[in-house]
Write a structure and sequence with these properties.
Blueprint lengths: L25 H11 L5 H8 L7 H45 L9 H13 L8
């Protein structure tokens, strides 16, 4: 079978699948589909669910799983940013105490303290209208 290809130039066997192995339960099929992240692709839906119905139970569960994963990822990102901010505030607070103890003179601060201060200023959230 040539499928319109010039066999003198293109000689290949096209892959075929006689049996697609799918999960046995709705949850397994939905997890597999959600893991791909391609919920709108008809071919992917057929491969993992065995149907092209976009409002079926498996598809709705896959969408829920994808949304949960996205929310979990956003929460982890926010937690990481909060931990960084908390650490930076702690370091800068120590630098400020040292600055006040040194008579409010910058040359009393060491290189590491100045580095912490600059790092904090760089990471402070910018508000609209700030320069």
């Amino acid at each position: 079978m040539t499928l319109g290809y010039d066999t003198a130039v293109f000689d290949a066997n096209l892959p075929t699948t006689s049996c697609i192995i799918r999960g046995e339960t709705t949850e397994e099929r939905a997890q597999a589909l959600a893991k791909t992240g391609r919920l709108a692709s008809a071919g992917t839906v057929w491969r993992f669910l065995g149907t092209s119905v976009y409002n079926g139970e498996d598809m709705l569960r896959a969408r829920e799983i994808t949304q949960e994963n996205r929310m979990r990822g956003n929460q982890e990102k926010d937690d990481k940013e909060d931990a960084l901010a908390l650490r930076l505030y702690g370091e800068v607070d120590l630098v400020y105490v040292k600055f006040k103890e040194g008579g409010s003179l910058l040359f009393e601060l060491g290189a590491d303290n100045l580095k912490d201060l600059v790092w904090f200023i760089y990471h402070v959230e910018k508000k609209k209208g700030d320069t």
